[in-house]
Amino acid sequence: MFVSTTPILHADLDAFYASVEQRDDPRLRGRPVIVGGGVVLAASYEAKNLGVRTAMGGARALRLCPHAIVVPPRMSAYSAASKAVFEVFRDTTPLVEGLSIDEAFLDVGGLHRISGPPEVIAERLRREVLERVGLPITVGVARTKFLAKVASAVAKPDGLLVVPADRELEFLHPLPVERLWGVGEVTAAKLHAREIDTVGQVAQLDERTLVTMLGAAAGRHLHALAHNRDPRPVQVGRRRRSIGSQRALGRRPRTPDDLEAILASLIDRVSRRLRTAHRACRTVVLRLRFADFTRATRSHTLPHPTTETELLLTTARLLLAAAMPTITSRGITLLGVSLANLHDDDAIQLMLPFSDHEPGALDSALDHVRDRFGTSAVTRAALLGRDTGISVPLLPD
Fold it and tell me: Which residues form the active site (predicted)?
């Protein structure tokens, strides 16, 4: 299988939300910081060192780290910091593939003569992000996306790790199996039950054995990664396949009216982002996490792409209504919405009968008001006086 010889950087900001808070408030520097109240959205390394983790309940986090400073999230500050960091990325190389708000792959092949070897480019990138944006960033360098991402994870926090081409497997094989993409708790437990603890032990198995143990897709995937076979190039201008937002609900009971209000708030948010990106959606996905920590999704595909908030909300409400018996019996701790199966907005068909009003005119007017005066300038009557909490954008697919 083809393996790129082009050096790839994986650049990943350290404890991003918490680092922005520490940057902007000198009193927080060097102290444990938790972003979010009921649920941890981010934790500084001072808090992580005491066991605090993202998505952990706030009460548990404070038991682990009683001296932590809890701050509310400031999504606009994080978005501005992300844009500034990505400007540094694009000043480094035009070949940038963003993975999320705080990480990206950079292809630095062909820059040796003008910018130096990849380790010099990576160190310069780290320095410029710190000087221009004021944030620490970790960079991993390798020939494949997979190994570059593993290298950055090993180098954290605020580090740089270059994996030489002739020592890739020497670096990779001693690592725990959890370092392989796609190995979560369930897959790791299956491997550990067979006394398979390292990537090297996975590599010693033939593909058929892994397929028998884990299934066709997972077995082939892990067999390839264990040998550092990852032919994917850095994709510039890749358009996201979904737009989503979710709300952690904590453990207190929620009425159907509460959930409807939260759902409306989420749909208002993601439909606005959909129109801003000039995309249209065909599939609405409802994401649920229950009190027993299990998860479920429900989805519905529309006949035609749309950007209309009310149509998307109606579809989401039907999905929520179908899930209510399960929610009632098992409780709910997270509600999320994703708009998937995206098309360019010029793919929207005009529907009969035609009316005197342009479809989406109300949505456009509300978007304009919120852009000018803030997201809370206009809201639904059903949301007045309700705590809809902090909605967190889902990572792009």
Answer: 103
pTM of model > 0.70: no
* 206 carries a ligand binding annotation: no
Residues assigned a catalytic role: 103
CA distances from 36 to 58, 68, 216, 319, 390 (A): 8, 12, 39, 28, 8
Q: Where are the domains of the chain?
A: 9-161, 173-226, 242-393
Write the CATH number of the domain with boundaries 9-161: 3.30.70.270
- 356 is an annotated ligand-binding site residue: no
Element holding 231 (H helix, E strand): none
Nearest to 197 by CA among 224, 182, 175, 172: 175
**Structure tokens that stand for 71 in this block:** 């701050």
Cα-to-chain-centroid distance, residue 298 = 20
pLDDT tens string 363-376: 555 555 445 545 55
Superfamily name and number for 242-393: DNA polymerase, Y-family, little finger domain (3.30.1490.100)
Structure tokens that stand for 164 in this block:
């030489």
